[in-house]
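Subject: sequence -> structure tokens, single chain

Hey, anyone have a minute? Need the predicted structure for the following. Not urgent.
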Amino acid sequence: MERKKRTKRKNRGKRFSRAAVIGLTFAVTGIAACAGVYFVKKDGRETPEELLSRYMALIGKQDYEGMYEMTDPENSAYKDQEAFIQRNSAIYEGIEAENIQVEIQDYDGEKNAVMYEMSLDTAAGKIRFENEMHFTDTEDGYQILWHDGLIFPGLSDSDKVRIDTAPAARGKIFDRNDRMLAGPGTASSVGIVPGKLENEESALRQLSELLDTDPETIQNRLGAAWVKEDSFVPVKTIPKVSELDLMALEPDEKALQEKARQDALLAVPGVMITDTEVRTYPFGPAAGHLTGYVGNVTAEDLEEHAGEGYNENSVIGRSGLEGLFEKELKGRDGCSIYIEDKDGAQKSVLASRPVEHGRDITLTIDAHLQESLYRQFQEDPGCSAAMNPYTGEVLALVSTPSFDSNDFILGLSDAQWNALNEEERKPLLNRFRQVWCPGSTFKPVIAAIGLKTGTVDPQEDFGNVGLSWQKDTSWGDYFVTTLHAYEPVTMENALIYSDNIYFAKAALKISAQTLEASLKELGFGEELPFEIVMPSSRFSNTEHIESEIQLADSGYGQGQILVNPLHLASLYTAFCNGGNALKPYLARSGESGTEFWLPGIFPADTAAQVLEGMKKVVNSPEGTGYAAHREDIVLAGKTGTAEIKASVEDTEGTEIGWFAVLTAEKEARTPVLIVSMVENVKEIGGSGYVVNKDKIVLDEYLGSGQ
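Reply:
Had a minute. Here:
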């Protein structure tokens, strides 16, 4: 754009002293400009001070064309508008300049110069400096004599403004024994060197088939502006094949298949495979729902987390512990902004922020117990929660079936993603973060409530009424059923034989009002105080237990009772801690330690009495959990089977199987409490199926001991 040369006015203003002009403060949109001087306008024209402030406001708006219009190009460093725009935009946008503020310091009328202090926030922190801007005085007004030093003092037209980043290492996640659950690992990057391709069409077709990638996607990568003949163009990240795995006596079938695929890839001229660092999850699907995974940031992420140190190359926790501890794990990249001279030497540092690596997180989780539980239940839709019943440390959180977090790092194909979403057993559903009908595992809780409230006498014989019972004919065709007849029908025997009828009668004795109040005291309807958000347990779909039948069913963990597995585990800790329910916790730190969540929910003698009954569930030959009995360690527990029906008349419903088991003595060498749940156990042995699986886990964790 051509601009006419203006004639300079002969009359120049004199220098104003700072002391003489104090008193005026003004603001310009996008700029905070506080002046200690002011100027008298000539013929209503814009003063140099006002011109400077308007110019700085345009920097914040990235209006470089408007900035150029304010300059005197004939007497400035840049006569060409495009060169001016390119220089300014590259620097200000490159350093992520924002929050530009200017304070006018002084004005020299003889030099037509305004002295000012400027500050701006950048990717490397705040930059603050003093500078001065000179003007030409023309008939049409003042114009800026622009030079590179107006961007930063000391910057010449041959200098460059550089920004260097030092990427922060993401923190690692460890279990209680320093086994890594998430951290840096190595994968294989498959790429193409364009100059070595012999038959591009054939090569892309083979790559597409071997990598399950669209040929157009590969072609687009090859067509990127930066690509040269000798460039390595990454196409896809795939698992690294370990030589040690291949040398095993019986190599893993997946490893052999992957080796065969990589051999086929390398047979394609122009294809290379190199190592690349990725986030890795050594325990794979065993901890998939627990660890979660990271993903590349999106434009939405950058907008949502503006100012938090993310850039287009960052990753962010998408689920599980990666998301929960994102703030601690991510760290902050180091950054330095400096001026480089024409010889490539560093001239001056404008701003610098040291790298802050992400913090490592150590958990209470025992990875071997986590893996053992997963191994037993991996084919079953269900979940397990394990705790130390005397400290509150959470030892395992397992949801099955699961997914491998590493697959999300390497990239899922559409077919893999659809398979995960369409799988009938729902591997993406985190079951330990749901609420479930607890069935008979709830009976110890009802027993303790009955004892605490004095509504149930533990020695009272409720009488043998057979295998089905109803209060009276007002219940119509509805009967409570049980599996075993025994005598006497007392609380302890009812726990041993898991008698639904006894606990239905007990609930009626307790009453709906008392049961509701008691369950609220046990944390029903409130959030579990735990790092991972869990849904609240509840005793009804409404605010109250609405009928006698619902109340009776609640007594043996049915009706509308829904409990989160970790909440149930926390309640069980009260039976071995004098009636105090422990607060579960997951992160090990200086502040972690045993803490009561619900102190004194049961009297100590009540807790001890219920625990004795739970011991007999596992150690008495008649007990429903006897299959888990051990000679070396005293265990206590409760089995449970919950019927899931569409209606009262439904006879084809499914069943949920439960087993809750704990080391009943505080002196146990390896204390543990496990709550396991499996869906659809009706045809595979009910709760006994879960007991047998947990027995194997206990043998592995505690030692065979037999």
